[in-house]
């Protein structure tokens, strides 16, 4: 299966993955890891369901290496790995939900009643959007020009004007680091810290991890809300497109909603 966003691991770029159904041991290990952190559990699950990572310059099939590579997965690729491995064991890919019409407020209930009455959305019908990986040569980066430059003051009291930033697509390892620092609640603070952790370039120049750790959050705190939203959308541009169209049966309003696919992960651990 093609990776929505390639995985960079030990200097190589991997563009495809082979998945297998999660074994009872993998699910048990994932449940244990969840007690130590949400994204640690994701890393455990991804490492357990990978059977191979593939590139034009060689494949990884060794179990220990695959488990290590799982932490380097971009979050959007990790989501695909988890969900599609679960689909290997479960034919039912329905997603229940309740949606509110933005015009009249009517509730739209999508649920399974019986085989003749199933109004749910289905994961297999959701499109997986893949990025252009430029072959196997370059890991894709996110580049963004700020609508208004921001100034930060460095420890040596010099002012650095930031006009554009470059960041990798946030990885499982990045999320694990942020979760260890501020907790697992995926709110705006978490998203900002994740962007800061993923920072690789400022004004077109590479920055080291020390710089990103010291000034990344400072930059994010000064960026406008509009820019933050735009950058956030760029980080979720690839992977499973969770938007679906809904139509109100009362007023006829048509709009888009985002379906929640996380129940697959939770239900797997409860099974």
Strand content: 25-35%
- Mass-distribution shape: globular
The portion of residues assigned to helices is: 25-40%
Strand order of the largest sheet: 1-2-3-4
**DSSP strand count:** 18
Uncertain spans, ≥5 residues at pLDDT below 50? none
Helix/strand/pairing class, anyone? alpha+beta
Q: Termini, distance in Å?
A: 26 Å
Helix count equals 9
**Mean pLDDT across every amino acid position:** 92
Q: Sketch the major β-sheet.
A: 4 strands, antiparallel
Rounded Rg: 20 Å
Description:
This protein has 9 helices and 18 strands. The chain is α+β, with helices and mostly antiparallel strands. Among the domains are: 89 residues, rbstp2171, CATH 3.30.2220; 95 residues, no CATH class. A hairpin with a 2-residue loop joins strand 8 and strand 9. The longest helix is centred in the C-terminal third of the chain and has 14 residues. It starts with a strand and ends with a helix.
Brief digest:
It is built from 9 helices and 18 strands.
Give the topology, please.
Elements: E1 2-9, E2 12-19, H1 24-34, H2 38-49, E3 50-55, E4 58-60, H3 63-70, H4 75-87, E5 94-95, E6 97-100, E7 107-110, E8 112-114, E9 117-118, E10 121-122, E11 128-129, E12 141-153, E13 159-168, H5 172-182, H6 188-197, E14 199-202, E15 205-206, H7 209-222, H8 225-235, E16 239-240, E17 243-247, E18 254-258, H9 263-270
Antiparallel strand pairs: 1-2, 2-3, 3-4, 5-10, 6-7, 8-9, 11-16, 12-13, 13-14, 14-15, 17-18
Helix pairs in contact: 1-2, 2-3, 2-4, 2-5, 5-6, 6-7
């Amino acid at each position: 299966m093609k990776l929505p966003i390639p995985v960079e691991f030990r200097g190589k770029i991997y563009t495809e993955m082979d998945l297998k159904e999660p074994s009872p041991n993998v699910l048990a290990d994932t449940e244990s890891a969840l007690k130590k952190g949400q994204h640690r559990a994701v890393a455990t699950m991804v490492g357990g369901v990978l059977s191979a990572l593939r590139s034009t310059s060689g494949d990884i099939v060794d179990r220990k290496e695959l488990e290590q590579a799982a932490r380097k997965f971009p979050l959007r690729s990790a989501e695909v790995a988890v969900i599609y491995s679960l689909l290997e064991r479960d034919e039912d890919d329905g997603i229940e939900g309740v949606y509110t019409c933005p015009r009249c407020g009517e509730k739209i209930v999508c649920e399974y009643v019986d085989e003749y009455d199933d109004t749910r959305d289905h994961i297999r019908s959701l499109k997986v959007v893949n990025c252009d990986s430029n072959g196997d040569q370059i890991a894709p980066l996110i580049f963004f020009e700020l609508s208004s430059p921001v100034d930060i003051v460095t420890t040596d009291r010099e002012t650095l004007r930031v006009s554009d930033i470059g960041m990798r697509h946030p990885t499982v390892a990045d999320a694990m680091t942020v979760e260890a620092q501020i907790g697992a609640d995926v709110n705006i603070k978490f998203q900002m810290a994740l962007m800061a952790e993923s920072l690789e370039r400022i004004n077109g120049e590479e920055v080291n991890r020390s710089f990103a750790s010291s000034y990344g959050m400072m930059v994010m705190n000064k960026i406008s809300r509009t820019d933050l939203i735009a950058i956030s959308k760029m980080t979720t541009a690839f992977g499973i497109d969770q938007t679906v169209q809904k139509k109100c049966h009362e007023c006829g309003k048509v709009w888009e909603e985002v379906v929640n696919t996380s129940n697959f992960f939770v239900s797997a651990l409860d099974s």
